[in-house]
Amino acid sequence: MPAPVRGAHLRRRNVWIWAFLMPTVVLYGLYTIYPIVASYWYSLVEWNGFESEQRFVGFSNYEAVLADPGFWNSVWVTVVFTLLVAPARIILSLLLAIVLNSPKLPFAALFRTVYFLPVVTTTAIVGVVMQFIFDPASGPINAALQTLGQSKGINFLGESGLALLTVSAVYVWKFFGITMIYWLAALQTIPRDLYEAAKIDGASAVQTFRHITLPLLMPFLLIITVLTIEDTFRAFDLMQSMTGGGPFFGTEVIEIYIYRWAFAASIPQLGFASAAAVLFGLFVMVFGFFQLWAVYAARRLRESTR
Amino acid sequence: MTTTTTTTTAKAHPVTRRGRSPWEAFRRLPWWGAVLLLVLLGLLWIYPFVWMVSASLKSSTEIFSGGVSLWPEEFVWENYARAWDDAGFGRYMLNTVIVTLATVVIVVVRCALCGYVLGRYRFPGSRIVIGILVATLFVPTGYTIIPIVKLSMELGVLNSLTGMVLALGGAANVSFILIYAGYFRQLPKELEEAAIMDGAGFFRVFWTIMLPLSMPVTATVALLTFLATWNAFFLPLVFSFSRPELRTLSVGMQAFVGENATDWSGMAAAGVISIVPIVVLFLFLQRYFVEGIAGAVKS
């Protein structure tokens, strides 16, 4: 092809390329990139309601957020919640995945379906149903406890500490299936003949797990841990529908805190809530870099174990 | 399980043995124990759904008499009529279907187009685009919700299903773009060369060759978007504050419980109505769901 034609061809190609990118540039630009940037501006203004004036106040919102015990409570609740549910999700689902992955197990597909079922159900609906299931007066859990001789009902969602534990248990039940699928995908990358070989050598199940399964799963452990922890930052739906962040802010994760100041307060403190959102966003962003590192490290690990 | 010594002793039983001896039965015992445990765990796993279906068919008096029985004394189908008509769940269902389908179309089109050019072409700015996408791989709704509401207000779409769809369709979904890009990248060049010889342009190559080939990815992206949108709560909640008739199922459930805290059977019926469509879809297309979710680890 002669050169000038080629240049025109390239130009036309680039026009097409940008045309293809347009829907993403517009929608994702408006609803993801712009909000991320705008949050920084909004965190610097005093702004009481979406219709009202914004007044520049510098960093005083940040000072107010950092001085608010409620904010630190929400950080604490978020961290405790993550520490409660992430290990449970990762370790329990690994054990279950190993059992389900065994060729000897009957009805493995049925079990997999059952454990995965809660994942596809609407979190906000499940949260409401759980309110009733754990109801101290007429809920089935307390009814069952009564028949077992527990005369006084347990108010699962009525005390801060217990409520967080209960919500955590429900959360694990609900999202456990995702982590299980991750592990099953990871286990399927292990060649079966390795197990055959171990069997011929007379290795016990425990030895097989320690010397074959575990080392080969290591790179996946990194990624699965990061993905699972990220998931735990997104507990808004369950908390809002099951406890609303209560009792006494005992289940108020950061997203609920932001929501409360922006949408549930009689006078919305949008600047203040934005400052909290930016701090949350920064924290998540740092975690995102950690994720990229984990993916990279996992690749290195996999190459070294081959 | 006994821990055998690691020296490779010859096994007491040759491998060719049929599973008939008492020893074999004993060796299989742990498995049946495991199966039993799995069954019990499985029952615990589906119990909330069974309870919900059961409560949706009971009368209020039966629920509050606090029986543990899951089998209703008499079947009260009227609960469903009450949830569907009086509580507005028929309306919420329609809203949810509209919002979900529109969002699925937007997300699939947007991610397929974007993934295609990022996966197959190098162009000025391509690295920057990919960099920005990867940097926003994970953005929680709580972080962006305030500017999204303000922006929707400025655009005049705050209290509308359109606004809801745009906000849901404009959410990050970066992983879908990356899945598409990865898929298009590995398709061989010869596929399009023949078409270009025949004089097909940029768009025709994409439309007649590339897009049909990417159907497996499209199925996954469509399904996962369907799941996420059907179950969405945060955005629909904020978008329907002042317009109750725009509620989706998940938001409607909140409102229903807020207004009728004592109508347990109606609540349970509303829950069944809301969850059945997505569960049926899952049971029919289970393989795609599982593959789509497993993809997060495999990449």
From TrEMBL, chain B:
Transmembrane segments: 29-50, 92-116, 128-149, 161-184, 205-230, 264-285
Chain coiled-coil ranges: none
All residue ranges annotated as the ABC transmembrane type-1 domain in the record: 93-285
Keywords: Cell membrane, Membrane, Transmembrane, Transmembrane helix, Transport
Predominant subcellular localization, coarse grouping: membrane
GO biological process per UniProt: transmembrane transport
Cell compartments where the protein resides: Cell membrane
Cellular component GO terms held in the UniProt record: plasma membrane
Topology of this chain in the membrane: Multi-pass membrane protein
InterPro entries, per database record: MetI-like (IPR000515), MetI-like_sf (IPR035906)
Sequence similarity: Belongs to the binding-protein-dependent transport system permease family.
Protein name as annotated: Carbohydrate ABC transporter membrane protein 2 (CUT1 family)
Organism: Pseudonocardia hierapolitana
